[in-house]
Amino acid sequence: MSEKDAIELVKKSLEMGVNFFDTAPNYGKGTSELRLGKALKEVDRDKIVINTKFGHKDTGGINYESDYIRESLEGSLRRLQTDYVDSLIIHNPPFEYLDGNKTDHYEILEKLKGEGKIKAYGASLDTYNEMKLLMETTGSKVIEAFFNIFSQDTAKAFEMAKENEVAIIVKIPLDSGWLTGRYDENSQFNDIRKRWSKEDKKVRADLVEKVKKIIPDENRIVQTSIAFCLAYDAVSTVIPGNKSIQQLMSNVESTEEPMPKELIYKLEDFYKTEVEPIKLSW
Fold first, then answer.
1. Is the pLDDT of residue 28 over 90?
2. Structural contact between residues 50 and 80, judged by C-beta atoms closer than 8 angstroms
3. Is the pTM of this model over 0.90?
4. Does the residue 161 lie in any domain?
5. Structurally, how many domains does the chain consist of?
């Protein structure tokens, strides 16, 4: 996507009422933050929420060491052309970095919060156990949680998040594209998804077909999948991502009607009976 198209997409999202923007230094090797900064430059800063990350570098590679937090954040602020971000989260860190009793990461994050450079901090996580440890040992108030129809383990921490007033940002709500209904067992991938074997793809394709039989309209699997994530009180927002105006409109459409509780229960039962027992690979 060109910079011009990316900026137009952000501006269109603003027109449609979107006010939350998720980015990271390594997205496009820094270009995501740069483009977002240009697109939001003239927007009232108090009207938007920006979440960025720490751990994956804009130059490639990773650095989770605590003494790199400030440098990483300062780089993000420069690219975003802003004095602060609303939240800074550690980008899928190893488990040992989640225990606030064993690392000084959260002391540094508290200092940055005191300086007004961030309003809140947390981590991007994939499991209930990770979320539980983070909330029990740190002052984190934001968690980007891996949650969708096929991956519901993190939902076990939703009640704890509400009790601790921790905001949940749902990531990967469309299961890296599977819950768009566009892929099948013969689909080929040239990105990180190429890790899936032929058998992995067949399993996911079969699950997609089962989901289509549960929902009222299989042609609205995208909207249903996003609406499912939004149906939980603990969830503050969902970040499905979009590369076109058409995708943006489809994603926003997911917010128009609340999901019936009966359908929520059916999809929860589907996970418990069809997905959880097979330990779906990721």
1. yes
2. yes
3. yes
4. yes
5. 1
